[in-house]
Amino acid sequence: MQRQSSDPTMADVARAAGVGVATVDRVINRRAAVRPETAQRVLAAAEAVGFRRAGLIRRRLGEQARPPRLGFVLQSERSAFYRELAAAIRAAVQAMPEPQPRPEIVFLDDLMPRRVAQRLLELGQCCDALALVAADHPQISQAVEALSAQGLPVFALVSDLSAPTLAGHVGVDNRKVGRTAAWILSRLCRRPGQIGLILGSHRYLCQEQCEVSFRSYLREAAPGFQVLESMVSLEDVGLAHAATLELLHCYPDLVGVYVAGGGVEGVIEALREVDRPELVTVCHDLTEVTRQALLDGCVTTVLSHPREWMATRLCEQMVAAVRRIPQNGAKVQALLPFLHYTAANV
């Protein structure tokens, strides 16, 4: 029985365009990236043969040509780290090929999970992909799930999140960071003794991992050191300042301090107020504040996120997700090497 005449099929379009049916399918369903000139050839063939989905192909090409809008939820702009991270994100976007993405960067002073989730959902109304720095919390996971259900990829930056539909995470290997901090303190402290540990919050998975690995290394390799109960700053400079003063007052024989969270500006201010030149201090992230503290001798060493590299990798992954470039269906886990600074190399 002969086939009845019917509307042109994808096979007809593929034949007219000189490509495979799979290429036509990729253009229509955005299953993978297709070179712009190939996509234009598919569109021309679809229009020439009267393919009924030619309008959809034209719309797909328009979506590819439109600069993607990337949303970023960062923490307080008063933090030097987040100001410099935002600058790195803007530079990364400007270095990307045309059409360059348009970044929307939001700074939050209120870090309550409900407020972070609300702002993330608001940003999702005008962006094609999102990234955030946040503590792990069910309300934030719920917001990530809602955005993912709408087809918006969401990435965790710096600190990972437990939301099952998270598109990816870009940061460093915090287990190695914590163990490196412990290794440094165990070798630079003049004698074994008590070590203070200051965190922003245990809900930041990155800080939790740093603390666990820090304690683990000293327990295994330097049992003469005693890590005190962690003090929490809630990422607040004032609270970090007060916590450090309390730590130095209560433990006059303290030999070292590890600052594994935010509010480091307050820690540095307290260390300057209390003259303890023998104290070995390790903190995170090189900024103008920690750089000066290294030069002053107030801080011994800084373990830092590679901000420029991290921003570039994040923006690339976000654009790839918007354009539906496949990642084998798995969460993207980009763990980059962290940097190590002392007064000798800043």
Quick structural summary:
This protein is an alpha/beta fold. The chain is built from 13 helices and 13 strands. The chain folds into three domains: 56 residues, no CATH class; 131 residues, 3-Layer(aba) Sandwich (Rossmann fold); 131 residues, 3-Layer(aba) Sandwich (Rossmann fold).
Overall description:
α10 crosses α11. The protein folds into 3 domains: about 55 residues, no CATH class; about 130 residues, 3-Layer(aba) Sandwich (Rossmann fold), CATH 3.40.50.2300; about 130 residues, Response regulator (Rossmann fold). It has about 350 residues and is α/β, with parallel strands linked by helices. It is built from 13 helices and 13 strands. The strands form 2 sheets. Strands 6, 7, 8, 9, 10, 11 and 13 form a 7-stranded mixed sheet that branches. A 6-stranded parallel sheet has the order 2-1-3-4-5-12, with helices on both faces. The chain is elongated, with a radius of gyration of 25 Å. It starts with 9 loop residues before the first helix and ends in a 5-residue tail after the last strand.
**Major beta sheet summary:** 7 strands, mixed
End-to-end Cα distance: 80 Å
Residue ranges: pLDDT <50 for 5 or more in a row? none
Number of discrete domains: 3
Keywords summarizing the entry:
alpha/beta; 13 helices; 3 domains; seven-stranded mixed beta sheet; Rossmann fold; six-stranded parallel beta sheet; 346 residues; single chain
Architecture blueprint of SSEs:
Blueprint: H1 10-17, H2 21-29, H3 36-49, H4 54-65, E1 69-75, H5 80-94, E2 102-108, H6 113-124, E3 129-132, H7 138-149, E4 154-157, E5 168-172, H8 174-188, E6 194-199, H9 205-221, E7 226-227, E8 231-232, H10 237-250, E9 256-259, H11 264-273, E10 280-284, H12 288-296, E11 301-304, H13 307-322, E12 332-336, E13 339-341
Parallel strand pairs: 1-2, 1-3, 3-4, 4-5, 5-12, 6-7, 6-8, 6-9, 9-10, 10-11
Antiparallel strand pairs: 11-13
